[in-house]
Write a structure and sequence with these properties.
The protein is of the alpha/beta class and 279 residues long. The protein has 9 helices and 9 strands.
Length: 279
Amino acid sequence: MPYEPNMYDSHMHTPLCKHARGEPSAYAAQAERVGLRGITFTCHSPMPENWDAGVRMTLEQLPQYVDMIGAARAEYAGRVDLRLGLESDYFPGTECWVADVHSQADFSYILGSVHALTKEFKARYQNGRTRLEYERSYFESLADAAETGLYDCLSHPDIVKIAHPKQYDVADHLDTIRPILDRIARTGVAMELNTSGLNKPYPEMNPGDVMLSEMAQRGIPVVIGSDSHDPHRVGADFDKALANLQNAGYERVSYFLDRERYELMISEVFLAELQPRLV
């Protein structure tokens, strides 16, 4: 579907993360086909001491990442606006490392992630704890991440539900989610609506509708991302995501350029469905 011509997809990867396919130009080509104005690449950030090394670039590869996005940006200039971003992990004790990585390139967008299924997270928060305590630690870490000031937005903010998809119930965590969203709202950090959740073991977007409504009540800005690891998913299910936002009470959707947040009226994005594709 064609989107309003300022619409961005703000979450996608490159082969440097070791689990994505397709060069940046292929992602840009798909963005052009679906009528997006721009895309922001957010490949997984380096972390210290081989932390979860199998699914991220190394620090030595960071210049390669910058160069490959720069080359694709030049190729698609005037057609699709390509931006250099980073999906940057939050884990207690690594904040100085992460801040240094952020200073090593001119990033347009920093997407903060708590990856609750990593061996490092499990070692710290799962051993000796119940399932509910482990899930609660994830939500508390989201607020901790927002309060560092390192990130523009928090990615897939209920991704912990795929750890135990048959047992997870958001109702078990509302007493935790509500105060952590209060903390996040006070920071001004945005949160992501990630469409890739529809293809995961708990098949709904991240976050689900209940948490999204709680975010809306607190005025937390939302950025949409496809979390594409393959070019064909760029812009995937954005129509459903926009509908979810409206149903939750949102009137606007956000995106970031040069670390500044911009807003679009959701109604104007939908109106673009009636216009010719701008490609």
